[in-house]
Design goal:
The structure holds 2 protein chains of 2 kinds. By secondary structure, chain A is an all-alpha fold. Chain A contains 9 helices and no strands. Chain A has a single domain, classed as 3 helical TM bundles of succinate and fumarate reductases (Up-down Bundle). Chain B folds into 2 domains: 3-111, Beta-grasp domain (Ubiquitin-like (UB roll)), CATH 3.10.20.30; 117-246, Fumarate Reductase Iron-sulfur Protein, Chain B, domain 2, CATH 1.10.1060. A 5-stranded mixed β-sheet of chain B has the order 2-1-5-3-4. In chain B, strands 6-7 form a two-stranded antiparallel ribbon. The chains are: A mainly alpha, B alpha+beta. Bound molecules: FE2/S2 (inorganic) cluster.
């Protein structure tokens, strides 16, 4: 137990926690996206899927609990690591150039909280049904379509998914590197597969409001 | 060529410092950056001013003594190059060059461009060693080491401990340095007995000294004069995770 605690207290240990919880959230994003995309197969399909999820009872709550733990740990660890990083350079440079890093990597601590805020709003709209236009507990399809027909809701959603994509752009490769899944031979994956996966996820989500706005899904 | 040098001048630890401008005429493109500073210092001494303090020793890129930020990059704009091996032909006539010390909580400034990098030594002291038997030298090739392992260990062992990785890291992390030191021993048979303890001790030491965490920016690798790659950081993390789950540092208590 003391070993576990001292593991978690180090920066390497904290980064491993960030990577592991990030992986859980990443898997959720993939699953959630695939589930949502069923909207293209019509109201029947999506509503049956939603009803099925609700019918799993304890399983659903188990998954939710796991996500909640992952989110909490992810945020708490990110804050801890970021503070340690800021402390590590009390006096900044008069002039410093970025050579290798990119915008996505430098803004993880900004894109993260923004995604979190959006998720809270998203839950209010589609899970707790406390905001947005006319909702029904059972007709998920209509809920989604009527929400996305409001341009502002769609635009906020699209922007949020772009921010999420930026977070993933650095996060996907980063989590592999942190847990040591890295080999000189596969270095090229960093700049190819990881960004492509990030783009596919963002695009998958964005496809839904776009389809509603242009009237493919109605 | 003509250059405008802006150099961080700071009288001593904890004193207030500032960038001071020194116009330099007649700079030869074949001068190294340190020779440029030598020239400047001669002029300063001639005028009765205090010369600029900077670290250097071998001046051939192998000792790791030299190093500061040159126009925002550790060791300057040339790849795989230490400050002493950076020649003025990498700059253009009329350039303004900013020279600043490496900045990190673990690298307190001693004077001007000189910082105290002994925290890197402390990381090595924490676990960067092997136990070897004394006595007559062992037979050559008595211990079989695959060529690829030997090469990889050499890649890591190329680290000269200059501290550029810490200076360039947006988080002031020393993970590239520590990873290189852990790996060059851990890749070889001689480094196996202490492999886990080494990872545990050196990683813990790094945090204790106030270095930041790695966010996988890759800035360290970009400035490293010896081309150490961040794959070694991944390797260090693997070692550390394995050590954390399997190693018992203290003898097991029996009741
Ligand atoms: S003075 Fe030895 S490496 Fe530059």
């Amino acid at each position: 137990m003391t070993r576990l605690i001292s593991f978690l207290r180090t920066n390497v240990g904290s980064k491993v926690v960030l990577a592991a919880t990030g992986a859980v959230l990443f898997l959720f994003l993939v699953g959630h996206m695939l589930g949502n995309l069923q909207i293209f197969e019509g109201p029947e399909r999506l509503n049956v899927y939603a009803a099925f999820l609700k019918s799993t009872g304890e399983l659903l709550w188990g998954a939710r609990a796991m996500l909640l733990v992952a989110v909490t740990l992810h945020i708490a660890t990110a804050v801890k690591v970021t503070l340690a990083n800021w402390r590590a350079r009390p006096v900044g440079y008069a002039y410093r150039k970025d050579i290798e890093t990119d915008y996505a990597a430098r803004t993880m601590i900004v894109t993260g909280p923004l995604v979190f805020l959006y998720v809270a709003y998203h839950l209010m709209m589609f899970t707790w049904l406390t905001t947005g236009p006319g909702y029904s507990e059972t007709d998920v399809y209509t809920n989604v379509v009527s929400a996305f027909q409001v341009p502002v809701i769609s635009i906020v959603y699209i922007v949020a998914m772009l921010i999420l994509g930026t977070h993933l752009y650095h996060g996907i490769w980063s989590m592999l590197q942190t847990v040591g899944i890295s080999n000189p031979r596969y270095r090229w994956l960093r700049r190819t597969v990881a960004p492509v996966v990030a783009i596919v996820i963002a695009a998958g989500y964005i496809a839904i409001p776009v389809a509603v706005l242009v009237g493919i899904v109605k | 060529m003509k250059l405008m040098l802006k150099i961080w001048r700071q009288e001593g630890p904890g004193k207030k410092g500032a960038l001071v401008a020194y116009p330099m005429d007649d700079v030869s493109p074949d001068m190294s950056f340190l020779e440029l500073l030598d020239t400047l210092n001669e002029q300063l001494i001639g005028k009765g001013e205090v010369p600029v303090a900077f670290d250097h020793d071998c001046r051939e890129g192998i000792c790791g003594s030299c190093g500061f930020m040159i126009s925002g990059e550790a060791h300057g704009p040339a790849k795989l190059t230490t400050t002493c091996q950076l020649f003025m032909r990498h700059f253009k006539d009329g350039d303004t060059i900013i020279a600043e010390p490496f900045r990190s909580r673990a690298f307190p400034i001693i004077k001007d461009l000189v910082v105290d990098r002994s925290s890197l030594d402390k990381i090595v002291q924490a676990g960067g060693f092997i136990s070897a038997r004394t006595g007559s030298s062992p037979d050559a090739n008595a211990m079989l080491i695959p060529k690829n392992k030997a090469d990889r260990a050499m890649d890591a062992a190329a680290c000269i401990g200059c501290g550029a990785c810490v200076a360039a890291c947006p988080n002031g992390s020393a993970m590239l340095f520590t990873a290189a030191k852990i790996s060059h021993l851990g890749l070889l048979p001689q480094g196996q007995p202490e492999r886990h303890q080494r990872a545990l001790r050196m990683v813990n030491k790094m945090d204790e000294l106030g270095f930041g965490a790695c966010s996988n920016h890759g800035e360290c690798e970009a400035v490293c004069p010896k081309g150490i790659t961040i794959d070694f950081i991944a390797r260090m993390n693997r070692d550390y995770m394995r050590a954390s789950t399997t190693e018992t540092m203290e003898p097991v208590k029996r009741v």
